[in-house]
Amino acid sequence: MRSGQRWTVLVVGALIAGSWIAHAGGQQQQPAELPKLNPNQLLSGCMQVVSTPGEPMAAVVYDPQQQVLGVYHIDRKTGEIELKSIRQIQWDLQMLHHQGKAPLPEDIKKGLEGARGH
C-alpha cells in the first residue's frame, strides 16, 4: 500500500472511531499516557483529538511526510465529521517567528547585544 493510501486509511479509521465514540453518547475514558516520541519517530497520519465539554471534538491530523495539517470537527450528537481546514505547513515551519507583536526576537537580540557591547 502506498504511503498516501496508508495515510488516508489511518485518518478515515481514526475519524470513524472518533465518530463512533461521539455517537455512543460522548462517553470517554481518560486516555492512557502515551510514550513520548521524537519527531523522527512519528508515523504518517499522526492524530490528536481535542475534547472540550459542550464543543465538537476536534481531530488534528498531521502527515510529516507531506507536511500537511488537517483539522476536523466531530459532532458529539450525530457523529458527523466535518473538514474545517487543511494546509501544507512546510513553509510555516521554516519561519523563525510569527506573532508580529513587540518585542520581536530580533529586537530582543539587538538589545542584548547592545547591552553586552557587541
In short, what is this structure?
This protein is an alpha+beta fold and 118 residues long. It is built from 2 helices and 4 strands, in the order αββββα.
> What is the number of helical segments per DSSP (H or I, 4+ residues)?
2
Structural class: alpha+beta
Distance between the termini: 56 Å
Mean pLDDT, to the nearest integer, reads 75
Structure characterization notes:
It is a single chain. The chain has helices at residues 3-23, 105-116, and strands spanning 46-50, 57-63, 68-74, 81-88. It is of the alpha+beta class and 118 residues long. It has a 4-stranded antiparallel sheet, with helices on one face. A hairpin with a 4-residue loop joins strand 2 and strand 3 (68-74).
Question: Could you list some keywords that capture this structure?
Answer:
118 residues; alpha+beta
Describe the secondary-structure layout.
Layout: H1 3-23, E1 46-50, E2 57-63, E3 68-74, E4 81-88, H2 105-116
Antiparallel strand pairs: 1-2, 2-3, 3-4
